[in-house]
Amino acid sequence: MRLDKFLAHHLGISRTIVNKELKAKKVTVDGEIIKSGAYQLSPEQLVEYDGYEIIPITQNRYFMLNKPQGYVCSTDDPDHPTILYFIDEPMSEKLHAAGRLDLDTTGLVLLTDDGQWSHRITSPKHHCEKVYQVTVEHPLTDNLIEIFHNGIQLKSEKTLTKPAKLTIIDEYHAELTISEGRYHQVKRMFAAVNNHVTALHRKQIGNIILDVPEGEYRPLTEDEIKSFCK
Prior knowledge:
CATH architecture of the largest domain: 2-Layer Sandwich
Helix content: 10-25%
Number of strands: 13
Number of helices: 6
Shape: elongated
Largest sheet: 9 strands, mixed
CATH topology of the largest domain: Pseudouridine synthase
């Protein structure tokens, strides 16, 4: 691969800027300063930029993050900080969330640069289950279990929600499992039964269970990654 192409990809900058950095003698290959972007790079060579080693990104990446309140799941937002604040990885801006959470919703976010893999999670036809811990304003009643199971008519929607499993923990706390990803779905489902969600936390997507502290992340295991490839 040409050196300028390698640098542009891994540093996230244009080739014009890359060539300026090369001329400024900021790039070395195996310890030797290289000023030509046309230099042909082999996979085993060590590339350093401004004294820091550039680790080649050769495979797709998969992470779980425990998202705090106040962060958006997009990679760029002019008004709010994004979840990439927590991700200390090369080219983190190439990652995207496989199923977003609202600004005030906390919990499990899956991040990847594998578009096909994330599609298996977000596409309605795959019926990927998500589990939420819900806190509500008004007391919960047992009849809601059947109502959620039968499907709920959301405002401005043509079809009922798919069957959802509601487990009531106490009067103001429940666990809800859904297999869709409609806009603000959980909040709208409770609003449709005259209740208001005051706190929402996602704890599980498919077979992947959140197990890192708030604001922290980790790579997914091979088994976790493959669980969405069936």
